[in-house]
Amino acid sequence: MSLIHALVARGSTILAEHQAGKRDFSQATQTILSKIPPNNSKLTYVWEQYLFHYISEGGFTYLVMADDSAGRRMPFAFLTDLQRKFTSAPSSSSAEEIPAHGLQGSFGPTISVLMHTYNTAPPGDELTRAQTELNQVKDIMVQNVEQILSRGERIELLVDKTDVMAGQATAFRRGARNVRRQMWWRNKKILGLSVLVALMLIWVFAAQFCGAGLNQCGSSKKS
């Protein structure tokens, strides 16, 4: 059994506690509580082969007594979980006015269940959870990179299509320029042909009065 005795206190006043073993450590826990400074702190006291770990924050102390073999990581993970459960409990809002052991009936079972959980199948500690979250983030990043790579292939395909369209546009402009040039020459040819037709019409009208060689008009004037 790693965790032996746990409690929540306001100053040196114990509000709720649970003892997993048969040996009474009440005097030892009271002595430790009297030594904890009023400011926010986190520390471990050594007594015989036991360690007293505590977190003091906001005027409340969360303390657990554990075997030396439990180390410090698991007991402090337990205390963090204990603090979270206590601060989220409805009774914590009025804990300033509650007498000693006033929360034993309501919060004592919570301490008991939490201690049993950590003694039998402790959840992953913060380091393990952080590593798990890091692995999850890494997996997500790998998936994102794969998506970016596939998007890059689509971008390359789009660029290829854009190049083809740019080439087609260039060919279209070149063709349009040739068409304009052909249209210009055709217009010039039509204009020249129109001038030639006009001259021929003028000659026809003139030939009706002056003859085909246009010499009769000149001879008539001399006579």
From TrEMBL:
Q: Which residues form the signal peptide?
A: none
Which spans are transmembrane here?
A: 190-214
Pfam families hit by this protein: Longin, Synaptobrevin
Biological process per Gene Ontology, one example term:
protein transport
Q: Where in the cell is it found?
A: Endomembrane system
**Keyword set, alphabetical order:** Coiled coil, Membrane, Protein transport, Transmembrane, Transmembrane helix, Transport
Q: Which residues form a coiled coil?
A: none
Keyword check for S-adenosyl-L-methionine = no
Q: Where is the Longin domain?
A: 7-111
InterPro entries per the record? Longin-like_dom_sf, Longin_dom, Synaptobrevin-like, Synaptobrevin-like_transport, V_SNARE_CC
Record's Gene Ontology CC terms? cytoplasm; endomembrane system; membrane
In the UniProt record, does the keyword Repeat occur? no
**Ranges of residues in domain V-SNARE coiled-coil homology:** 126-186
Topology with respect to the bilayer = Single-pass type IV membrane protein
What family is reported? Belongs to the synaptobrevin family.
What is the protein name for this chain? Answer: Synaptobrevin homolog YKT6
Please tell me the species this chain comes from.
Crucibulum laeve
